[in-house]
Design a protein that fits this description.
This protein is mostly helical. It has three domains: 1-13 and 26-52, no CATH class; 70-138, no CATH class; 141-198, no CATH class. The chain has seven helices and six strands. The chain has helices spanning 2-13, 27-32, 34-69, 80-83, 104-117, 119-133, 177-195; strands spanning 72-76, 90-91, 99-100, 136-140, 165-167, 174-176. Strands 1-4 form a two-stranded parallel sheet. A hairpin with a 6-residue loop joins strand 5 (165-167) and strand 6. Helix 1 (2-13) runs antiparallel to helix 3 (34-69) and helix 3 packs across helix 6. The two termini are 41 Å apart.
């Protein structure tokens, strides 16, 4: 899939056989390159369709595997629409009309990665497959799921040595951060399930 994304970027920048400066040469150039332009548009559209089919196929297969292997599936109830919002501008109090850096460029890259991952589409497919198979999918609040020690329950606000390693400052428990988050989400899901039996 990465190969096709690179190809998409290449075709979006410049048409095949077109010099870089030809994009701004007027109507004459546009008429001369009509056939090439149409072929490039069709090729890019085909690559987009292929990437979309591959992502949907991966989502369907992953969701089906989870539904077949587990009776109860818990996931974080992420507000994806809120996560991909652009940061608000920061006006400079000393200079009217001037704005301070607000990390918009970095946030734009993160927003693109979140949208590219297709979490919403995957969760929709997962819920549909689970419902048809009689499985249970539980959404839990993500608050502190990555900061709570699964051994002693201590919630730590301190930063870890690395993003991937979880280290509890209370009991000394060491684990991979993803494992800690997964255990906490599953436990929270089971608590909700037991609190609301079918």
């Amino acid at each position: 899939m990465r190969k096709h994304e690179v190809a998409l970027g290449r075709h979006a920048l410049r048409l095949p056989g077109e010099p870089l400066q030809a994009r701004h040469c007027g109507a004459e150039c546009a008429e001369a390159r009509t056939a090439n332009h149409l072929r490039a548009v069709q090729k890019v559209a085909g690559l987009h369709r292929k990437v979309r089919r591959q992502r949907l196929d991966h989502a369907h297969k992953t969701a089906l595997g989870l539904v077949r292997e587990h009776d109860v599936i818990a996931h974080e109830d992420l507000k994806i629409r809120n996560m991909v919002q652009a940061p608000k501008p920061k006006p400079d109090p000393e200079q009217p009309g001037v704005f301070l850096p607000n990390g918009a460029a970095a946030k734009a890259g993160l927003n693109h990665s979140i949208s590219d991952a297709g979490w919403g589409v995957f969760l929709t497919i997962l819920h549909a497959k689970a419902e048809s198979a009689g499985r249970e999918v539980i959404a839990v609040k993500p608050r502190n799921t990555s900061r709570t020690c699964p051994e002693c329950g201590h919630v730590s606000a301190e930063k870890w040595p690395t993003q991937a390693k979880f280290h509890c400052v209370s009991c000394g428990h060491l684990a991979h951060a993803d494992t800690v988050g997964t255990l906490n989400v599953l436990r929270a899901g089971l608590v909700r399930r037991n609190a609301n039996p079918a």
